Amino acid sequence: MCRALPVAAFSLLALACAPASPPPAAPAVSAPAAAAALPDARAQQALGEQLVAAFNDAWNRHDMDAFAALQAEDADFVNVFGMWWHGRPEIHKNHVGIHETVFRQSRLSSVRVETRFVVPDVAVVRWAWELTGVVTPDGKPAPDMQGILVHVARREGDRLRIVTTQNTRATADAFHAVRNAGAPASPAP
Questions:
Q1: Which of 49, 129, 140, 188 has a Cα at 20 to 30 A from 26?
Q2: Distance CA 157, CA 120 (A)
Q3: Contacts of 97 (CB under 8 A, 6+ apart)
């Protein structure tokens, strides 16, 4: 038994040190062909702004059915407080709950939207937001909030559907810098 262990260990070590066979080569796609499949910069930005406008509209009408419809069935969502929800039904349920309580009078607005397609059908949509009208659980006015939402979204025809969301609350100083930054750089054509 004692001899079997060193022999087995030696065999594994020999396998680990053996030269690896090269991975299969990925199909070559020329840069111009890949770029041609991406929407142009204006179309990218328009799709992102359309998604953000629909997000704001559903939020401000407190229509969590419309809000949930923006999410992919298997989407996940990390809210501004760090709660991580998986799947459209869970995202819907939790937003219904907060819109019946602390966010029932809230108004969401976008300050700056940047959209970048990383492949022809997947975009990163990042936007700065302001939220007013929040109340505490006992109904008292809460301070206005601001932050940055990041969505990874999949293009479905002429619109985007959210696959994942990360929401980050911003300090006043950080938000001031984001709000006053120059126009976003245009994505590469």
A1: 188
A2: 11
A3: none
How far apart CA 44 and CA 124 sit, in angstroms, is 10
**Predicted TM-score (pTM) of this structure:** 0.74
Gap between the Cα atoms of 146 and 60, Å rounded: 15
Measured distance CA(48)–CA(117) in Å, rounded: 10
Partners of 129 in the beta sheet?
110, 147
Tokens standing for residue 8? 């087995």
Backbone angles phi, psi at 90, to 5 degrees: -70, -40
Element spanning 41, H or E: helix 41-60
pLDDT tens-digit map of 29-48: 444 444 446 778 898 999 99
Residues 6+ apart with CB under 8 A from 104: 62, 135
Give the helix, strand, coil percentages of the chain, each rounded to 5. 35, 30, 30
